[in-house]
């Protein structure tokens, strides 16, 4: 069993929770993590770069002038890539480079990433994180107190506007609903922080992490 420390907003340890590695696959699957990260980054690629080939350029296909006898270099039509305004030799086209991972693989990769963070001692539970109004300085102070100001992922169960507004301008700080967390989110930040409710939802059902059931 792994021990996950519970810290208050002042950075003091007030307790701990147990985490069973078997609930998260029992071991870190590095090959699956690689696939998950590559798939996520490929999904961020827009693939909208496009240029015109010679067939796409408007213009006559007539040869500009005769082949010999003019004293000039040979020339084809106006669409040729060697002339200004002509088409590109190897034109770029719209393409989809996204990669698809099955849902079970995505969830197992997320659980494996969480297990890796827990094994490295970079996971904690933050108790008492409440905001009556947006206060970026207060959240920054809390992260500094718990030594997570160099970058962290904060997993929550409710979209609190005050908390979201408090953290959106802090560099290297991500805030996600626990059921929307993916392997890339976990791995790209140094610290993984749960609210008590988020940790309970994750441990209670590691596959769905308490995701609400769609109505209708």
Summary keywords:
216 residues; alpha/beta; Ribosomal Protein L4, Chain: A; 2 domains; six-stranded mixed sheet; 6 helices; 6 strands; elongated
Polypeptide structure, described:
The protein has 216 residues and is an alpha/beta fold. The protein folds into 2 domains: 2-45 and 101-204, Ribosomal protein L4/L1 (Ribosomal Protein L4, Chain: A), CATH 3.40.1370.10; 50-93, no CATH class. 29% of the residues lie in helices and 14% in strands. The protein contains 6 helices and 6 strands, in the order ββααβαβαβαβα. It has a 6-stranded mixed sheet. A hairpin with a 5-residue loop joins strand 1 (2-7) and strand 2 (13-19). Helix 1 crosses helix 2 (103-119) and helix 3 crosses helix 4 (161-167). The two termini are 39 Å apart. The mean pLDDT is 90.
- How far the N terminus sits from the C terminus, by CA atoms, comes to 39 Å
CATH class (first level) name of the largest domain: Alpha Beta
Overall tally of domains: 2
Which structural category fits the helices and strands? alpha/beta
Strand content: 5-15%
* CATH superfamily membership of the largest domain: Ribosomal protein L4/L1
CATH topology of the largest domain: Ribosomal Protein L4, Chain: A
CATH architecture of the largest domain: 3-Layer(aba) Sandwich
Helix fraction, binned, reads 25-40%
Q: What is the averaged pLDDT score?
A: 90
């Amino acid at each position: 069993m792994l021990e996950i420390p519970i810290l208050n907003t002042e950075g003091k340890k007030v307790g701990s929770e147990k985490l069973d590695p078997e609930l998260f696959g029992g071991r870190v699957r590095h090959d699956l993590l690689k696939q998950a990260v590559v798939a996520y980054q490929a999904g961020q690629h827009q693939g909208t770069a496009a240029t015109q080939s010679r067939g796409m350029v408007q213009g006559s296909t007539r040869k500009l002038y005769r082949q010999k006898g003019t004293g000039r270099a040979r020339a084809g039509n106006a669409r040729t890539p060697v002339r200004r305004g002509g088409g590109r030799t190897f034109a770029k086209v719209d393409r989809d480079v996204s990669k698809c991972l099955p849902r079970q693989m995505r969830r197992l990769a997320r659980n494996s990433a969480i297990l890796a963070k827990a094994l490295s001692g970079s996971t904690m539970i933050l108790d008492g994180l409440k905001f009556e109004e947006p206060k970026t300085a207060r959240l920054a102070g809390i992260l500094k107190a718990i030594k997570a100001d160099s970058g962290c992922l904060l997993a929550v169960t409710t979209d609190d506007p005050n908390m979201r507004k408090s953290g959106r301008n802090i560099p290297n700080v991500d805030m996600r609903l626990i059921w929307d967390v993916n392997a890339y989110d976990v791995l790209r930040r140094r610290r993984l922080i749960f609210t008590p409710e988020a940790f309970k939802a994750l441990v209670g059902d590691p596959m769905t992490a308490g995701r609400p059931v769609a109505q209708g």
